[in-house]
Amino acid sequence: MENKRKVSLLLLTLAAAMWSVGGLLIKLINLHPLFIAGLRSFISAVIVIFYVRKPRFTWSFPQIAAAFAYALTVIAFVIASKYTTAANAILIQYTAPIYVALFSGWLLKEKVTYLDWLIIAVVFCGMILFFMDDIDTRGFIGNTFALISGVGFGFFPIFMRMQKKGSPVESVILGNLIASLAGLPFIFATVPTPGEWFCLVILGVFQLGIPYILYSYAIKYTTALEATLIPMIEPILNPLWVLIFLGEKPGVHAIAGGVIVISAITFRSITANRIKTR
Asked: By CB distance 3.0 to 4.6 Å, which of 34, 43, 149, 185 could disulfide with 77?
């Protein structure tokens, strides 16, 4: 079981790295956000169904609740990315650990320690510092949807963990189908360019589909808080893709914030592992 947990922590890290290209690709697509969210999720649903082959839908409360939390996360994030800065969208979304810490003890009976609360505080300080140069008061609508996305992203691992003895990946399929339906009214509104089609396929397959397959496996062997804290490397990687593709250099504050977040997550993982092995 311990080996599966270690593998799961690595899979969470890989999933976060693949998620991190989302903000950049969404910005490159000049289409309605619900069209992007719907088509991205439809492609993702096809990938996940192909992986599962014979999905088992129990229609239990955790399975349905996780599906709606997932759909809320991915739809609201696309809208946020279109109406506010990428930094604001990802930073506000990552208020998710607060909701995990507040509700996982009640819903999952998982103990949230003082160390967890301390790490959450340190991580958020680091992330605020990381995006200090970019945060402004513009895009109230985008910021609001980023907050909504954070709520969904917080409850998603909780309801996924409720299915740890089953097959939680079906919630991802259902969530993608819900998001696809949300984008259906906009599917004939415009025709994507070849470049936009390429970005949409990358978003559906490599930024959403495969990472959530990895995430659905990993969630069975990690705590809900780990499943939210570890993916916090996602907002650190985003500026690297911006630097590579758009030539935008991160500032000193961003570099300092990245060091703080990585150090806090690493410290928490090592400390938690030592406690488990005693």
From this structure: 149
Report the number of distinct structural domains present in the chain. 1
For residue 75, give its domain range: 2-277
Q: Tell me the per-residue pLDDT of 113-138, one tens digit each, with 9 for 90 and over.
A: 788 788 888 888 887 776 666 555 55
CB of 239 closer than 8 Å to CB of 79:
no
Q: What is the pTM of this model?
A: 0.82
- The C-alpha atoms of residue 277 and residue 165 are separated, in whole angstroms, by 23
End-to-end CA distance of the chain: 15
